User: Fold this.
Amino acid sequence: MREVERTRRVGGTPAEVQRLLSPTTIVDWEGSFDVFDVQDAGSVAETAETAGDDGTVVTAGGTGVKLRLLFTELADGYRYEQLGNGGPFDEMTTRLTVEPQDEGALVTARSVVELGTRVPFADRIAAWKRGGELDRLLASIDAET
Assistant:
């Protein structure tokens, strides 16, 4: 299991940044997957994974990969995680926070990833790739504010 964190100061206020963010824009701005479907967590069939959740489930994917992400909106950003074992990770959880800084905002994305394979350095490679996705997300937020 590896943790990766990226932080960027952006010109927009926290309120402006928060208005830009949604589960679909986050997935789009990370740049690795296309969004296929969006549902309220309570309407997803696998109630064991989403029972009691007031979030949003995004089904996304790319060439040969499909995953479902559970997004929970928080006062200062979002928390999201891969649901089940149908995606590329055994575990992937990300916390995106927005806080005031000077005349703008400080946006932090912190993600924990685990591939769950015995291949040496696999988690390190997954964290490196995840870091690139977080860099793209923060660059897109910066460009839009």
Observations:
- The domain at 2-144 is CATH 3.30.530.20 (Alpha-D-Glucose-1,6-Bisphosphate; Chain A, domain 4).
